Structures are given as C-alpha cells and as structure tokens.
Amino acid sequence: MKLDIAVLSGDGIGPEVTAQAIKALEAVAHSFDHTFIFKEALVGAIAIDKTGNPLPNETLELCVNTDAVLFGAIGDPKYDNNPSAPVRPEQGLLKLRKELGLYTNIRPVKAYPTLIDQSPLKRDIIEGTDISIYRELTGGIYFGKKHLSDDGTVASDLCEYSKMEIERVAHLAFKAAQKRKNKLTLVDKANVLESSRLWRKVVTEVAQEYKDVTLDFLFVDNAAMQMILNPSQFDVILTENMFGDIISDEASVIGGSIGLLASASVGDNCCMFEPIHGSYPQATGKGIANPIAAILSAAMLLEHFDLVGEANAIRDAVEKALELNITTPDLNTSNPLSTEKVGDFITDYI
Amino acid sequence: MKLDIAVLSGDGIGPEVTAQAIKALEAVAHSFDHTFIFKEALVGAIAIDKTGNPLPNETLELCVNTDAVLFGAIGDPKYDNNPSAPVRPEQGLLKLRKELGLYTNIRPVKAYPTLIDQSPLKRDIIEGTDISIYRELTGGIYFGKKHLSDDGTVASDLCEYSKMEIERVAHLAFKAAQKRKNKLTLVDKANVLESSRLWRKVVTEVAQEYKDVTLDFLFVDNAAMQMILNPSQFDVILTENMFGDIISDEASVIGGSIGLLASASVGDNCCMFEPIHGSYPQATGKGIANPIAAILSAAMLLEHFDLVGEANAIRDAVEKALELNITTPDLNTSNPLSTEKVGDFITDYI
Ligand SMILES: CC(C)[C@H](C(=O)O)[C@@H](O)C(=O)O
Ligand SMILES: CC(C)[C@H](C(=O)O)[C@@H](O)C(=O)O
Questions:
Q1: Residue B116 has pLDDT above 90, yes or no
Q2: Is B67 considered catalytic here?
Q3: Topology, domain B1-102+272-350
Q4: What does the record give as EC number (chains A, B) (predicted)?
Q5: B145 min Cα distance to partner chain A (Å)
Q6: B93 lines ligand 2 (CB under 6 A)
Q7: Interchain pair B246, A221: CB under 8 A
Q8: Phi, psi of A112 (to 5 degrees)
Q9: Do B157 and A194 touch (CB under 8 A)?
Q10: I need a surface site. Which of A9, A47, A72, A130 has the fewest CB within 10 A?
C-alpha cells in the first residue's frame, strides 16, 4: 500500500516523539513492503513564530490532500497565561479539526498489566479496564456562536447539535462496540440540557440498527464518578465534545501513564493520529519524553487503513518494551532510557 | 438563637437521613439553648405524585420565608429513563435554587484518616486532601436559553455569564480561601470558551481585593486529571455551574465514601443544606442509608449562622462514630448499624 502522510510535529516534545513514530512506520513499511511518504508542515506555536498563523495555509493544503496526518503536540507556555491573546496555538488545532471534518475523536484507555502499579487507583479497581471513548469533535460548545457584549460584561457560548452531527459519530461508535464487547454508554446531561435530550433521542434511534449492542445512559456527573469507582464497567463511551474532553482526560490517568495513550480523529475524508499528552514544554530537548503514545498513534493509523497485522507488529513491539522495562524515566526510575533509545528498540523489534 | 428551618426531605432515602439530621439539630438546640423550629414541605417525585408539581407553591412560599432549608434528596427511577418527560423531580431542585437565589454551592471534600482505605485511590495520593469546591449554581448553561427547532432536528443550550454573577460567587470563594490555605484555583476552559475568558478576567480583577490569596488557573480537562493524580494540591476550587457539577462529583469519590459528603447552597437571602448523595432508591426503607452526610449538612447550617461551637459538636460526634466504627453497611461490613442507630449515637454524643 502507498500512503501519503502529513507530519505536523508541532511544539515542545512533539518533534521528538513524532520522530520515533516515523521510525516505527518506516520499519513497518520495510517489513511489510509498503510505501509511506512523509511530508512535514508547521502547526501551533512554532507556526505562529514563523508565520504569524497557528495553521498556515500550506499546512492545511497539505493535510487536505494527504491520506493521513501524524500530529505531535501544540502549546507553549508563552501563550498559556493569556487565553485572550488574538492568536493562540489551540486555534490551529481546532481549525484543523473543523476544516478536515474530523468529527470523531477515538481514545482507547487500557490498563496495561505491567503498569497497573503506576496508577493512582488501586489495582482491583482498574484491573480489566479496556475502554474506547468516542468523542464528537467538530460540534457543540466548541464551535457554537460566541458572544461578548460591547461593554465586556456578558459573555456566552452556544452549545448546538444537529441530528446529522449526532448520527454520524453514533454510527462509528456502535460499529466499534460491535467489534468489542457490544456495550455502548452515552454520557450526557439530559436532565438539564436540551442538546443532551436530542443526543439521547437520536442515539436511541440509531441503536435500532445495532440490535446486538446494549445501549445505556449515564449523566456526565455520575460518569465522572463511575470512571474512578469502576472503570472496567465501560466498553464504548459515546459523548459530545465538551464532556468528551473532560471524561477522556480523566480516564487517561487511570491506566498509569498518560505517556502511553494514543488517539485518532477521523472524518469522512481525512484522519489524524495524535498522542494525547501535550507539548510538555519542561521536557523539551531532554530526551526524556515517552515516545510510546506517538508510536501507538502510528499503530492506530495503520489500523485505520485496515493494516491490522502491521498495527499489531507495532503493538507487540511496544508490549515487549514495557515487559523488558525498556522505557523512559516516567515509567522507569532505576534504569531509564532516552526517547530515541526506546524508539530504536521498538523499531528494531518490528 | 431562634431559627426557622424548612425541611424538604424529598424522595428515596431523603426522609430517613433527614430525620437523623433533625435529631442532631435538636440535640444541639438542647445543649446550647437554641430554638430551632422545623416545618416540613414537599419536593421532588413525591411532590409530583401528590400535587403534580415538583416544587409546589406552598413549598416555595415556606422556603422564601424561612432562615434555612434542610434538603434531603430527590429522584425516582420512574422518571430517570425519560428526561424528556414534561414534569421531572430535578426541575423542582433547579427552580428552588433559582427562586431562592442560591448562587453558590459549597462542597467540602476531605480524606478522613479512618476511611482512606475505602477510597478507590491509593493512600499516598489522597492523604492530606482537604478541598472546598465553590460552584456557581444559578447561571451558565443550566439556566441559559434552550432551543429545539420545530422539526426537532437541532437543539441548543446557551452558556451565558455576566460579570455580576461571577463576582458574587468569586468573593465568597476568596473569603473562604482566606480562612483556609490562601489558595484559589479557577477551573475553566478559557482556551475555547468566551464565557470562560470572562470568568478569568473578572476573577483576576476580584483577586486584587484578596492579595493574600494565591490565584491559579486550570483548564477543566486538566483539572479532571489533577483531581485524581494529586488532589492534595487543591485548597479552594472556584468554577462555573456545569464544570462544578462534574468536578465536584468526581472529587466526591476520592474521600472513600460519598455517604459522608455534605453541601451548602447559599445566596444573599437564603441558604440550603443537602447531603450530596442522591435519593438512592434501592436502599429506601431498609435502614441502611448512611445519615452522616445529612448530619454534616446540619453542621454546615450551624456554621453558616456562625454557630461554630455547635457545628463542631456535631463534627466531633461524627468523628467519634467513625473512630468507633459506629457506621452503616457502606462503611462497615462486619458489624453494621442501622441509619437510626448511627443517628442515635451521634445525637447522644452531642
Ligand atoms: C487544546 C484543546 C483546545 C483541546 C480540546 O479541548 O479539545 C485538547 O484539550 C484536546 O482534548 O485535544
Ligand atoms: C439533579 C441535577 C439537576 C443536579 C445538578 O446537575 O445540578 C445534581 O447533579 C447536583 O449536582 O445537585
């Protein structure tokens, strides 16, 4: 197979970890006889610094015409304390999601047996946890009409959803549940929000086409508790954009290391793969960033193109590295390896 | 002191636990020579059943003319699966908050040393946790304009905040921080929401009046992680209505038992005290409900009226009960006592 892959490595540790993911993909290309063509482009704070724009037109152009996007991370402390600044790195990411039509964000959360003791939660609570979170990514309060009164004393954001927006992500989530444990939990706040009531209605309708999947509902406040009390009860979680942002970040810490978590953002015409950790500026250039989340994002990319054996080759290599404790300082205090060395081991193992 | 207290015990286990809180308050009245006059009224599912209205006019009337409201719980499974039903118990609670102007919800979250092992989180993570969450309660997306298109395919909710709404709850939160560890964390999503940017701006201005309090900011997704990774970093958390609903419920599980957590909802003219557990219908009438959250809500009531010694008398009695393991089955599997017996012990101890 031939794939054009745009590489947007971004800020902070983004470039370091993305480099390891590319190495892993090149090893796969070599072993399985594929051709992957990588083209780099700017995004985030580095793009603002160089062009004034967090998502330059050439970057968007490249992404629109590529098969997949490999994304690093964005964000720089110099923008963090001023969310009202006219240009900010996040705007690049949000615009990219919207322009590429990436309406579904998929985040797997798994308790790796070797890492359970690193979790802030007790072993018996997290054992067996294997969740796939489907978050709507291009609608809701993120993209609804914003307003600030002329005198600056009243501000508002509109959370709006249409049936179509709910249906398309729901179908992807139900299909995923069919390949997993046939359970889907819709997280909403239907006891308060009109938009949540529409979610419940539309998802209940879509469920008719997936009779083998059990659908249940959880209010978001309760979901935030259940995620800690009993995470292994979940299979697929489906939710709207803002709730998904919160619940998926909460879920990300139960597995023991955020340095392992990958995500995919998909739409009808494009797809993007991204480690969920951020740009982690304090670690930049020190060789201590964990490359596994970026490498597992590459595995999600392969799986997206039905290269299942290839994806598993990456996952096996990662599990081997974890088993042998060939890991960065976040997971390994006694004998840590560098970002690059961990990447090398995984690449060689593939 | 003479206090008129409206008692809205509501649904499920509400009446059982509220009865124990009243006993504790009566013991305090007796020991400290106060007069507390209790008047009961209907709210929630039971009010719908009896009057068709989750907040009958007589109930609202009583609350408006009282010094404080002691609230039990609302909710009944027969309404849960139909959030679109025209009349629902939650509407009573939301209307009560709005009509009484209860714009601040205060929830203390503490790790009780005797209960740490009951927590889903590891001991070293939660030790020392002592948080007070200030949630705005009468604004934001809960009360903003809702809309459903005529053909039922587009739904929306408006999240709107004014400077005044932010200021008044912020002042209460800063004052609380001054009596605690002088730290206030604003939780928002200012990298995405216009309303959050107004929160940041206004809270930063209010902070000028409280120079002894350190203010910091956390995006809500990060807050959801930090609450699990390192809850003892927090002192006072201030946040808007929806984020407060999620974050405070998440925080409620770290202490080891939701059966211990009390809350206060305060405004300029009224105040209401409520255990944070819900109506827990499965436990109704079995004598297994933990009355401590309701009893600690009564302590918050006393403290609100500056009856600090009285509030501490209740808290000491509760700590004694926990220490001697005089507790309900949720905390005590070997030799559990009934709701009433736990209430009796605490009352006698006072
Ligand atoms: C950076 C921010 C705008 C973004 C979001 O809220 O979606 C991030 O938190 C994420 O989850 O990818
Ligand atoms: C019952 C519901 C409307 C309510 C809320 O969301 O405010 C509850 O979850 C709470 O936190 O008191």
A1: no
A2: no
A3: Isopropylmalate Dehydrogenase (3.40.718)
A4: 1.1.1.85
A5: 9
A6: yes
A7: yes
A8: -75, 125
A9: yes
A10: A130
Give the position of tokens 């106060």. Answer: B34
Q: Where in chain A is the domain with CATH 3.40.718.10?
A: 1-102+270-350, 104-266
Instruction: Give the mean model confidence (pLDDT) for residues B125-135.
Output: 95
Task: Judge whether A157 counts as a catalytic residue.
Answer: no
Q: What is the pLDDT, as a whole number, of residue B217?
A: 96
Cα separation, A190 vs A204, whole angstroms: 13
For chain B, give every residue range classified as CATH 3.40.718.10. Answer: 1-102+272-350, 104-266
With a 6 A CB cut-off, is B225 part of the ligand 1 pocket? no
How many Å lie between the alpha carbon of A55 and the closest alpha carbon of chain B?
16
d(CA A201, CA B84): 9
Give pLDDT, residue B112.
Answer: 84
pLDDT at position B51 is 95
Decide which of B332 and A297 is more confident.
A297
Q: Which ligand is nearest to the CA of B102?
A: 2
What are the CA-CA distances from residue A279 to residues A252, A255, B256, B305 (Å)?
16, 20, 34, 48
Q: Which residue has the tokens 């000028």?
A: B208
Q: Across chain B, what does the average pLDDT equal?
A: 95
Q: What is the pLDDT of residue B84?
A: 74
pLDDT above 90: percentage of residues in chain B: 88
A73 CA distance to ligand 1 middle (Å): 10
Amino acid letter, B123: R
Is A235 among the catalytic positions? Answer: no
Query: What are B115's two structure tokens?
Result: 């209960």
Cβ B254–A83 below 8 Å, yes or no?
Answer: no
| Residues B32 and B307: beta-carbon distance below 8 Å | yes
pLDDT band at A140 (very low <50, low <70, confident <90, very high): very high
Rounded-to-integer distance, Cα B180 and Cα B186, Å: 16
Among A81, A162, A193, A229, pick the best mutation site for testing chain B contact (most B Cβ within 10 A). Answer: A193
Is B142 noted as a catalytic residue in this protein? Answer: yes
Query: Is pLDDT at A323 greater than 80 in this prediction?
Result: yes
Residue A333 — pLDDT band, cuts 50, 70, 90?
A: confident
Q: Find out whether the beta carbon of A245 lies less than 6 Å from any atom of ligand 1.
A: yes
The pLDDT, as a whole number, for residue B256 is: 81
Q: Is B276 exposed, middle or buried (0-12, 13-18, 19+ CB in 10 A)?
A: buried
- What is the whole-number distance in angstroms between the Cα of residue A221 and the centre of ligand 2? 8
Catalytic residue among A95, A98, A175, A189: A189
Q: How confident is the model at residue A88 (pLDDT cuts 50, 70, 90)?
A: confident
pLDDT band at A124 (very low <50, low <70, confident <90, very high): very high
Annotation: CATH topology of A1-102+270-350:
Isopropylmalate Dehydrogenase (3.40.718)
Binding residues of B for substrate: 97, 107, 135, 221
Q: What does the pLDDT read at residue A78? A: 84
Q: Which of B13, B37, B17, B14 is nearest to B26 (CA)?
A: B37
Residue A181 known to be catalytic: no
A155–B195 CB contact, under 8 Å: yes
Write the CB contacts of B333 (distance below 8 Å, at least 6 apart in sequence).
none
Q: Ligand 2, residues B55, B91, B93, B239: which to mutate, most atoms within 8 A of Cβ?
A: B93
| For residue A83, pLDDT beyond 80 | no
Query: Rounded to two decimals, what is the model's pTM?
Result: 0.96
Q: Is the pLDDT of residue A80 over 80?
A: no
Please provide residue B305's backbone torsions phi and psi, each rounded to the nearest 5 degrees. -95, 25
A84/B156 touch (CB, cutoff 8 Å), yes or no: no
Distance CA A116, CA A109 (A): 13
